[in-house]
Amino acid sequence: MSETDVPLTSPATLSAQMRRGELFAVDCPSRDVLQHVTSRWGVLVLVALLAGTHRFSDLRRKIGGVSEKMLAQTLQWLESDGFVLRKSYPVVPPHVEYSLTPLGLEVARRVEALADWIEGNLPSIMEARRLRS
Length: 133
Fold this sequence. Notes:
It is a single chain. By secondary structure, the chain is mainly α. It contains six helices and three strands. It is 58% helix and 11% strand.
């Protein structure tokens, strides 16, 4: 075993578990991030922002069906997680733009791959649903 290998049976300290992110632990902070990124609106916001900087109203038009409240909340979550950059300009009326941070670009590409997989397999998924109903 090399010095970088960690035996599967070795007990980890609580701080090491928290740093690594114990997703299955009820108090793991990665659960909140996972919820923000993989929520319906989180996925759509991240994928929309892959195309570049958008204003709030542009995002709302692009993402059909999202309420103003849910879009604002989703953008706040993604901003607090370090994925979205909110830039406010001191003009009247207020002008605010949203873009992806480098970390946001990385997670958005991963989420886009999942969304692409779902779209590519949608006929099979819909057929499975039909057969089970």
